[in-house]
Amino acid sequence: xxxxxxxxxxxxxxxxVDVDQLFGNIDAITNAPTLGKFKFRANHKWINGxxxxxxxxxxxxxxxxxxxxxxxxxxxxxxxxxLGEDIGPNPVEYVLTALxxxxxxxxxxxxxxxxxxxxxxxxxxxxxxxVRGLLxxxxxxxxxxxxxxxxxxxxxxxxxxxxxxxxQMGTKYSPVFDTITNPVNVTAQLDN
Length: 192
Prior knowledge:
- 30% of the residues lie in helices and 30% in strands.
- It is an alpha+beta fold.
- β4 and β5 form a beta hairpin.
């Protein structure tokens, strides 16, 4: 987010974002890059069948530990057609949720930095997946999504080319978009 792209507002809050604090955070991290290193955590347990539960209660950022006001408990399951009890979204639906939330939040922050007031944003996501990979029916079938599409409706008093630019900024700077579209080192091992 470039300082020169921001337009000064009478109010320091735009789109629910404290713009002064946003630029203050950018300045602080620019001057001390280690402040930008965060570690997010999740504790997970299997319940039964396809039902799993994740608890998120703290993270490390700005060189210190932070607790959420209350732990977040997220249930995941599978629909009956995939042998679950439909207690929560399935994991690949959570991927869509994380992607939509991250790209949208990134878009909103960049809009605020540019001085663009947003009235409303809605996104619709679709992802194509072939469960033959999950079920080990074919090694030639990818186990994850083949394609994901995000369709945005954005209400703002700016031309469509600026809205398209915001969508591009949302995908370019979104950590979840980057994680999904680029290889990331993931390990799984026994925890003794």
